[in-house]
Amino acid sequence: xxxxxxxxxxxxxxxxxxWHTLLPFLFRKVSVLTQRQRITTPDADFLDLDWARRGHRRxxxxxxxxxxxxxxxxxxxxxxxxxxHEWDALALNFRSCSGEINKTLxxxxxxxxxxxxxxxxxxxxxxxxxxxxxxxxxxGGNVILKYLGTTPQIPDWIVGGAAISVPGHLASSAxxxxxxQNQLYSLRFRLSLRKKLKQKAEQxxxxxxxxxxxxxxxxxxxxxxxxxxxxxxESAYEYYEQGSANNFLSGIHKPALIINALNDPFLRxxxxxxxxxxxxxxxxxxxxxKGGHVGFWYPGQRHSYAxxxxxxxxxxxxx
Length: 319
Description:
Elements: H1 17-27, E1 35-40, E2 46-52, E3 58-63, H2 73-84, E4 88-93, H3 114-123, E5 131-137, H4 139-150, E6 158-164, H5 170-178, H6 183-203, H7 219-231, H8 236-243, E7 256-259, H9 274-279, E8 283-286, H10 305-315
Parallel strand pairs: 3-4, 3-5, 5-6, 6-7, 7-8
Antiparallel strand pairs: 1-2, 2-4
């Protein structure tokens, strides 16, 4: 059930949304120790997993956002919070995000759950953790919600998940990134993705229409031109429909927390699924007034609001 109603349907953007988003990105410093493990996927690609073990019986699997990685500040913050609350942590790097381009044409996207499922069953499932939780940020939050809503047989030891700053309705979030006030973020994402596209074009000559890269002015055009080819979608519309977590919330049967701040500059009203949360008692929507996009932190705090909220929620289901 939603813990706080969305008070406006016009826009989730407030004067402080950008500041709350940028504050931890610019000023938060967190140091954690991780150990990398490279695994081979069934399609002969690889995934890089960063482990932060402290000998706890509980494990949190962390999934990063668009063009993030296991060392993004919000991932390192959650790792430290996990340790302080007696959880081990496993930070998953999606394909192409660990510092080395992956081997297959296929990379990662908002609706890709296959790699997460493989890690859960083939890696974590063979270990001796008593409880395992999923925590995702932005794109990563969307991935874990879709996983929880579409996977036929989720292991009993998966207690649930927490999804932070989730663009559960991809079409509206893509349009939000096109708006003038979000051009700084959009440019950062585009520059990172363009570098990877050039690497893919070298790996697979003639497959990607690189001559169209400069003419893609909107995210829908970019996704319709490149994301579709890389990840085998017919159109941007199909990608947004199959990738939007909102379309799969009704299938969730494990406790799932969604934390979406009302001043998130990337989210629009469709990404605050109040009615869907009301219909499914397993889905808990929390909409604080402030927090920005994957923010929720102020100087002097050891743990962000989202870290504390997520871990306290998940701990309730570990008895």
